[in-house]
């Protein structure tokens, strides 16, 4: 079995590790690129949102590289993503590929099916082995998330722009090669030291939260590197979503996941009292949370035609007004020209900067 | 006398203006078409600005804005390279410090800027579609064989504006053609179009924003009196079109440059000789990874001034 899966930020690191631990040959698709986008959108329904197109592009590139089994996440609720696995399977079959699809639906009450799916990727291994493989993969992702969070702070202050990104990139590949907990602990320590030794300016940067639909938030190719572009403008960012949050909520039920869910409901309540699919409720809740945490503003990212985020987009102006908290919504689709995004980000940062000057005086 | 030059290179037009320290234009502002060749347009614009400039003006700062602001900035040697939102807001505030709303419609962008107490508090731009911007009006004027300058006047002559779909130019054009073939007068169709564009702007770009007077309407499309009236009708308040409405971005860029130079530093402006300098741009595709970034190089007489277009930053050079 030569297994592959779609890209979403650093997700590949965790999945590759876990699957290799289980004895699979893993084919990681090339990082999403213009080619991925072209291949994916050629074969996708025109009205589908960008995540489907990029996923499909990833699959096509992985199949070229010899993959024969695809692991894909399913979903519940009104977001279209839930049936993308099934649609992609049909598309690939119609194109004549002979490929095995394993679609993971979130467990939410369907434990038997979930365990069956787990056994299918388990390669005949007992359940405890499967879990320990998954946990090792997740541990690597947790380290990466931790380092990225520190990286956000450093990026805003670094003297040589790009240095932090370079260290994180290097660490990502070191973690990929690591095969024991001891090794990854060492890598974490080394990376931390390296990050903290980056030459920094003594400034008090603006703090901006990034929220929105998870795929767009986590995949820099799709969001035109919003995080780093803000970093270049000396802005400190924090994401409302990190990859391990998603894994914990969707793949492994955890107390943290339930707590987070509870918090989201509480925070979004006055504006949006229920789940609307995808991350719509999160987007509304994060405006409340980050306004309370005294962030200077929030950037809301969404794929064009994304239903849950359209709901959030139309509620956010009210939240923004009530809490006097600036929010900028950016919509992403197939365009690769960066000028529009940069103009809006620059203008937003200008707005925040001038606001802060006035508030201080 | 001290002067500051502002260059605004948009998708359709290029604007160059020289202002005094108070923000008043010196000489006639330049407003020409970019025609897909920004380098040529910038040089031509700078040359025209020089021709008309009163004697004895010393340029103490230069600013650029618009979608080609980086290119323009490298070419002329800018002290301030800023986005269009900030530039437009700064220019409008200079004109009327009490302004609460700016409607700006250009060639491919339309934006709304909300200000309170002289501060930008919110803004929005059209997202994935350029319906209702200048390019579309241009195209319709051409199709109807009417000079774009007369478009607005004609709209005012309409007796019963027809209903045109506004949210998509394809729908709008098909509505217009249908009504034209039914025999409606050109005036009624144009007036209908102006109303459709104002309606679309308010429900799309300005969605969820509180529009309070004073409202300033600027950008190339503000020349169209038909749209101005359509906005007034829809908003129920007066909409002001400033005298230099089409070069407000350039004025803003020059004001931002002046602000930057307050500490008395020396300008990077290369001088009006920019108009005669030799600029070449070339491009290549980087094969370092699957992104295949398209890299652009700007050179002057063989000397590399800037290079950009890569995602990873390995080619990026900007002369400072």
Number of strands of chain A: 8
Structural class of chain A: alpha/beta
Radius of gyration of chain A, whole Å: 20 Å
Summarize the helix and strand pattern of chain B as letters. EEEHEHEHEEEHHHHEHEHEEEE
- The CATH homology group name of the largest domain in chain B: ATPase, nucleotide binding domain
Low-pLDDT parts of chain A are none
Under CATH at level 1, the class of the largest domain in chain A stands as Alpha Beta
CATH topology grouping of the largest domain in chain B: Nucleotidyltransferase, domain 5
From the spread of the alpha carbons, the general shape of chain B counts as globular
Count of individual beta strands of chain B: 14
- Major beta-sheet overview of chain A: 4 strands, parallel
Please report the distance between the alpha carbons of the first and last residues of chain A: 65 Å
Helices of chain B, by number, come to 9
Major sheet: arrangement of strands of chain B = 3-2-1-4-5
Mean pLDDT level of chain A? 90
Low-confidence stretches of chain B: none
Provide the number of structural domains of chain A. Answer: 3
**Shape descriptor of chain A:** globular
List the helices and strands and how they pair.
The complex is a heterodimer of chains A (361) and B (320).
Chain A: E1 2-4, H1 11-21, E2 25-26, H2 34-43, H3 50-64, E3 69-73, H4 84-94, E4 100-104, H5 111-121, H6 127-157, H7 163-177, H8 181-196, E5 206-212, H9 214-218, H10 226-232, E6 235-239, H11 243-250, H12 255-268, H13 280-292, E7 297-303, H14 307-323, E8 327-332, H15 339-360
Parallel strand pairs in A: 1-2, 1-3, 3-4, 5-6, 5-7, 7-8
Helix pairs in contact in A: 1-6, 2-3, 6-7, 6-8, 6-10, 7-8, 12-13, 13-14
Chain B: E1 2-9, E2 13-19, E3 30-33, H1 38-51, E4 58-65, H2 69-76, E5 80-81, H3 84-95, E6 101-105, E7 110-116, E8 119-125, H4 134-144, H5 151-156, H6 169-182, H7 186-203, E9 215-218, H8 225-235, E10 239-240, H9 248-260, E11 279-285, E12 294-300, E13 303-308, E14 317-318
Parallel strand pairs in B: 1-4, 4-5, 6-9, 9-10
Antiparallel strand pairs in B: 1-2, 2-3, 6-7, 7-8, 11-12, 12-13, 13-14
Helix pairs in contact in B: 3-9, 6-7, 7-8
